[in-house]
Design brief:
Chain A: InterPro entries: Rieske_2Fe-2S, Rieske_2Fe-2S_sf. The complex is a heterodimer of chains A (about 120) and B (about 400). By secondary structure, chain A is mostly beta strands. Chain A is about 10% helix and about 35% strand. Chain A has one domain (about 1-115): Rieske Iron-sulfur Protein (3-layer Sandwich). The chains are: A mainly beta (about 120), B alpha/beta (about 400). The interface of A and B includes residues 76, 108 and 109 of A.
Chain lengths: ~120, ~400
């Protein structure tokens, strides 16, 4: 479990990005639920934490593919692959994330960068 | 409705086909595309695909396991629509009879008159265009881009990144003044100079020179620009010639209501060829953006399936993006009619800022340069404001 931030510091409608590799973002929805997904859009290198949070979905800030925070599923192109979802635990007012052990679906440019080892 | 024909197999056509199935239509679905390819994404054609960083497989709009239970006709150009029999005629002699028709034939790149058959002169709209241009860009040399709009600017940026010597020629005094206004048009087009790409404004093109292959661009002020390669990016015209005489009302494309319905019952139009009524502004607008081609077909399909009984929602402010010289440019709303534009964050000099266009004090459009997070917030705010009834009085 990785501590992300305090729940009190993450207002509804906001996101917090964990700068690990690959980054994970924690979203606090308008309904008060907290979800964690991979931060990078599966289409192109864009941070979903910068995206448009509406209900249980976040829309990529660049090209408008929407990801379901509950399942990671994408609704429409240009992205075609889901993002990974991660388990969230809130304890003593702190949000913790348990990163998924599945392989991430990173966009082509990011995937090749990670494979090459260079940042 | 037992048969629906979607004429056009790009983003708008595919989005319509998807919406039909999502909304429970389970009859025969025929999708007709004039290109030989399955639906593909066009924005990368002037950017990553052209530069070689993205392959053809990456352009596919469909997912691997997607099956819309549709009959796909590729390489099939529609040449006519018979309103009596509701039949779409195709260039190869085939025809498709349908109860419902979705017109999604898009737009075609405008060419420069008198340049037919001259090698080295390109327009960029389709995958085939992009393949041909990519192969020639790889040879290097001097590129002249005619037109300083978004396509021209993106090609210039990509070609510059590939090591070509690039000049952009724009007939208007300021590039991008139409979509962005004069002030911001000059800010955004300053990216060319930042990277050593020449930008010549306020000068028209008289013609091209060359026997079988272009060797120069001749300007109206008498200057000659030597060129190994020319890209013409002077806009697009809606592909609606095939509808002449069909009874579908045409006016700057297909004239549509606020839900995409045309003048013929059972026929809707979407995407770049469709001139939808904007109930907020009280005028028709033909929006040629990727986002509109993806989002609007759902409203048109709802109208088609319900026979027009579905209540059309208010249109979201149009949104588009552009990537040039590593800078992400985003724009939402309508700059026309704005009486002020102010930089609210960052600085144009740093090529990282957010500017808000206002009319009588109310935000009507927002431009962002490398300001993804803030831009998204403004985009959300603008969408909420536009659907607020009091705004329609503006």
């Amino acid at each position: 479990m990785i501590p992300a931030c305090r729940l009190a510091d993450l207002p509804r409608g906001e996101a917090f990005r964990l700068d690990i590799d690959p980054p994970i973002s924690v979203f606090h929805t308008d309904d008060g639920e907290v979800f964690a997904i991979d931060d990078t859009c599966t289409h192109q290198d864009a941070s979903l934490a910068d995206g448009w949070l509406e209900g249980p979905e976040v829309e990529c800030p660049l090209h408008a593919s929407k990801f379901d925070l509950r399942t990671g599923a994408v609704d429409a192109p240009p992205a075609k692959l889901p993002v990974r979802t991660h388990q969230v635990l809130i304890e003593d007012g702190v949000i913790y994330v348990q990163p998924s052990t599945d392989a991430p679906n990173l966009p082509p440019c990011v995937a090749s960068r990670l494979a090459g080892g260079a940042a | 409705m037992r048969t629906v024909a979607v004429v056009g197999a790009s983003l708008a056509g595919l989005s319509a086909a998807r919406s039909l199935r999502k909304r429970g239509y389970d009859g025969r679905l025929v999708v007709i595309g004039d290109e030989p390819h399955r639906p593909y994404d066009r924005p990368p054609l002037s950017k990553e695909f052209l530069a070689g960083g993205m392959g053809e497989a990456d352009l596919a709009l469909e997912t691997d396991d997607e099956d819309l239970q549709a009959e796909w006709l590729f390489g099939a150009r529609a040449t006519g629509l018979d309103r009596q029999t509701r039949t779409v005629r195709l260039a190869d002699g085939r025809s498709v009879r349908a109860d419902g028709i979705v017109i999604a034939t898009g737009a075609a790149a405008r060419a420069l008159p008198g340049t037919d058959g001259l090698a080295g002169v390109h327009t960029l709209r389709t995958l085939d265009d992009a393949r041909a241009l990519r192969d020639e860009l790889a040879l290097g040399g001097r590129l002249v881009v005619i037109g300083g709009g978004f396509i021209g600017a993106e090609v210039a940026s990509t070609a510059h990144g590939m090591g070509l010597d690039v000049t952009v020629v724009e007939a208007a005094p300021t590039p991008l003044a139409g979509p962005l206004g004069e002030t911001m048009g000059s800010v955004v087009s300053a990216l060319h100079a930042d990277h050593g790409v020449r930008l010549l404004c306020g000068v028209g093109v008289k013609g091209l020179s060359g026997e079988t292959r272009v060797d120069a661009v001749l300007l109206e002020d008498g200057r000659t620009l030597p060129a190994d390669l020319v890209v013409v990016g002077v806009g697009a015209r809606p592909c609606v010639d095939w509808l002449e005489g069909s009874g579908v009302a045409l006016e700057n494309g297909v004239k549509c209501g606020a839900d995409g319905r045309t003048s013929l019952a059972g026929v809707v139009a979407v995407g770049d060829c469709a001139n939808w009524y904007d109930p907020v502004a009280g005028i028709h607008r033909r929006v040629e953006h990727w986002t509109g081609a993806r989002e609007r077909p759902d409203a048109a399909v709802a109208a088609l399936l319900s026979g027009g009984a579905a209540e059309p929602g208010l249109p979201k402010p149009p949104y588009f993006w552009s990537d040039q010289y590593g800078v992400t440019i985003q724009f939402v709303g309508h700059s026309a009619g704005a009486d002020s534009v102010t930089v609210e964050e960052g600085s144009p000099d740093d090529r990282s800022f957010l500017a808000v266009y206002r009319r009588a004090g109310h935000p009507v459009a927002v431009l962002g340069m490398n300001q993804l997070r803030l831009f998204t917030r403004w985009r959300k705010q603008l969408a909420a404001a536009t659907t607020f009834p009091a705004m329609s009085a503006l």
